[in-house]
Amino acid sequence: MPPGVTFHTSSTFDLRPFPRAELVYAGFSLGVLPAQKLAQARAGAQGARLFYSCVPVSEFGSAWPDGVPMQVHGMDADPIFAGEGDLDAARALVESTTTAELFLYPGDPHYFADSSLPSYDAAAAALLRHRTLAFLAIHPG
User: Fold this and answer.
1) Which helix (H) or strand (E) holds 132?
2) HEC string of 20-66?
3) DSSP 71-119
4) Reduced to 3 states, what is the DSSP secondary structure of residue 70?
5) In this model, does residue 105 exceed pLDDT 50?
6) How far is 10 from 67, CA to CA, in rounded Å?
7) Beta strand pairing call for 70-75 and 100-105
8) pTM (2 d.p.)
9) Pairing between strand 70-75 and 47-51?
10) Which residues form the Dienelactone hydrolase domain (predicted)?
11) Separation of alpha carbons 110 and 119, rounded Å
């Protein structure tokens, strides 16, 4: 883990002040909703990491915030991510800003990076971890 990186988890859409506003927000699957909302709506966001899901930018504002880097990660054949509109939303987001990246991994599991599940894909999870640590080294929040 890069020096100075800490993690905060939340299951709410709460926008009350947090002791430190300069954060990188991250969410997995349904947890992408609060992460994406906070990254788009809270001043001082240093980045966003969206895993397995993405919603249209219009859900939380008119555009992705200028200068806020973000990445979306998902499997190219995941019936939820690729089949229910998340991949389309991610592609549209990436096309709308120069600070967004989309990483697709081959396969169909939804929760491919959770080693406690049968859907775990070790190779994809290792690459996702590498990309996450590289992102946090550049944008520690």
Assistant:
1) helix 122-138
2) CCCCEEEEEHHHHHHHHHHHHHCCCCCEEEEECCCCCHHHCCCCCCC
3) EEEEETT-TTTTTSSHHHHHHHHHHH-TTEEEEEESS--SSTT-TTSTT
4) strand
5) yes
6) 24
7) parallel
8) 0.85
9) parallel
10) 22-137
11) 8
What does the block give as tokens for 91?
Answer: 């592609």
Confidence at 23, pLDDT banded by 50, 70, 90: confident
Residue in the block written with tokens 């859900």:
59
**Sequence-ordered list of residues with C-beta below 8 angstroms from that of 128, at least 6 positions apart, any chain:** 51, 73, 103, 105, 112, 113
Buried b (16+ CB within 10 A) or exposed e, 49-73: bbbbbbbebeebeeebbeebbbbbb
What is the Cα–Cα distance from 118 to 99, expressed in whole angstroms?
A: 33
Q: Using alpha carbons only, what angle is made at residue 2 by residues 90 and 111, rounded to the nearest 5 degrees?
A: 40
